[in-house]
Amino acid sequence: MTGTPVRLDLSSPTRGPRGKPPKHFVDLTPEQRVAAVTELGEKPFRAKQLATHYFTHLTSDPAAMTDLPKATRDKLVEGLFPTLLTAHRTLTADQGTTVKTLWHLFDGAKVESVLMRYANRTTLCISSQAGCGLACAFCATGQLGLTRNLSTAEIVEQVRAAARSLADGEVPGGPTRLTNVVFMGMGEPLANYKAVMETVRRLVAPTPDGLGMSARNVTVSTVGMVPAMDKLANEGIPVTLALSLHAPDDELRSELVPVNTRWSVDEAIDSAHRYFEKTGRRVSIEYALIRDVNDHAWRADLLGEKLAARGTGWVHCNPIPLNPVPNSRWTASDPQVEREFVARLRAHGIPTTVRDTRGSEIDGACGQLAAEED
């Protein structure tokens, strides 16, 4: 397989042929929300009431907005809260504590999100694009191609829905709150930079202007879009950066991750290290272990050497046993090979933890999201 250059405009989201989603309350800044409410003939303070209902009470149902006159709430909801996502199907695993939702968007595009409840945290894996244009060879999403970018509100709605589900006790274990959000679902987050960053701002803004989450509990992943990684480092929002590397050498990585033909392994790692230097946030290196493809001992040593050469304490490596994808010729590494790979990374002083593969039986684990109907 030969990698081909990928040219991406980072200045603005790229829209597919399906068109632009309707404007939603969440797409607006607090100041714009006041203006929008006023334009609908309502008092400015209604904007804060709406924000409280959406971000604090996690609802856009007019029937729940009992502090607003009925005529007012109906008009505001109709004008500012168009339906952007409709849950088409949910699948569960792990005794119901892993929930994958297939969403139909306003124009028929499809995305998936995965909610995972653990003993001490709850994590939602969200999508930022319908499909993906980067064509990583082992990823089901990458084989779909890119339909379009999601809007800020389409991304945030995935989060609100999951947070409401947890608050309502719909996931086994009783009512709880959403603690972590990872941009590791469908799409390359940094290829939809503007909407993703606006989403992050909504997630971390204090209530009622946002969801009030800790930036440290938000992870943005990338396959190595260096200019956008450097831009992210200067945002002043200390999210966790996850670099999906998957190979330490350019020859193999260009086959597995075609964007490597534009930004090499060393360029991507250097950018990740700059992110650490700028933010003080330890970077995660994601590495899908593929049997007899990238799991060789010498590649573990090469990866360890490259990471260690840039210093200590700046990085954590997450090997991920390859999750099965229909019709793929590849499979996960042998457990003994996986253990050797981990041991060699640790021998170079690289903190290493094998990633949990929850949800693989419902095609909800890393690399498996394909938005299939059946």
From TrEMBL:
Residues holding [4Fe-4S] cluster: 132, 136, 139
Positions of S-adenosyl-L-methionine binding: 187-188, 221, 244-246, 323
EC code(s) of this entry: 2.1.1.192
Cofactors that this protein relies on: [4Fe-4S] cluster
Location in or out of the cell: Cytoplasm
Record's keyword terms, sorted: 4Fe-4S, Cytoplasm, Disulfide bond, Iron, Iron-sulfur, Metal-binding, Methyltransferase, rRNA processing, S-adenosyl-L-methionine, Transferase, tRNA processing
A GO MF term: rRNA (adenine(2503)-C2-)-methyltransferase activity
Record flagged with keyword Iron: yes
Location, primary (coarse class): cytoplasm
Keyword Cell inner membrane: no
Domain Radical SAM core as annotated: residue spans: 118-360
Pfam families listed in its UniProt record: Radical_SAM, RlmN_N
Known catalytic reactions: adenosine(37) in tRNA + 2 reduced [2Fe-2S]-[ferredoxin] + 2 S-adenosyl-L-methionine = 2-methyladenosine(37) in tRNA + 5'-deoxyadenosine + L-methionine + 2 oxidized [2Fe-2S]-[ferredoxin] + S-adenosyl-L-homocysteine; adenosine(2503) in 23S rRNA + 2 reduced [2Fe-2S]-[ferredoxin] + 2 S-adenosyl-L-methionine = 2-methyladenosine(2503) in 23S rRNA + 5'-deoxyadenosine + L-methionine + 2 oxidized [2Fe-2S]-[ferredoxin] + S-adenosyl-L-homocysteine
Entries under SUPFAM superfamilies matching the protein: Radical SAM enzymes (SSF102114)
Catalytic machinery residues: 112 (proton acceptor), 366 (s-methylcysteine intermediate)
Region described as Disordered: spans on this chain: 1-24
A Gene Ontology BP annotation from the UniProt entry: rRNA base methylation
Any one cellular-component term (Gene Ontology): cytoplasm
Cofactor note: Binds 1 [4Fe-4S] cluster. The cluster is coordinated with 3 cysteines and an exchangeable S-adenosyl-L-methionine.
Function: Specifically methylates position 2 of adenine 2503 in 23S rRNA and position 2 of adenine 37 in tRNAs.
Miscellaneous section: Reaction proceeds by a ping-pong mechanism involving intermediate methylation of a conserved cysteine residue.
HAMAP family hit by this protein: RNA_methyltr_RlmN (MF_01849)
PANTHER family in the record: 23S RRNA METHYLTRANSFERASE, RADICAL SAM CORE DOMAIN-CONTAINING PROTEIN
Stated family: Belongs to the radical SAM superfamily. RlmN family.
Protein name: Probable dual-specificity RNA methyltransferase RlmN
Source organism (scientific name): Cellulomonas fimi (strain ATCC 484 / DSM 20113 / JCM 1341 / CCUG 24087 / LMG 16345 / NBRC 15513 / NCIMB 8980 / NCTC 7547 / NRS-133)
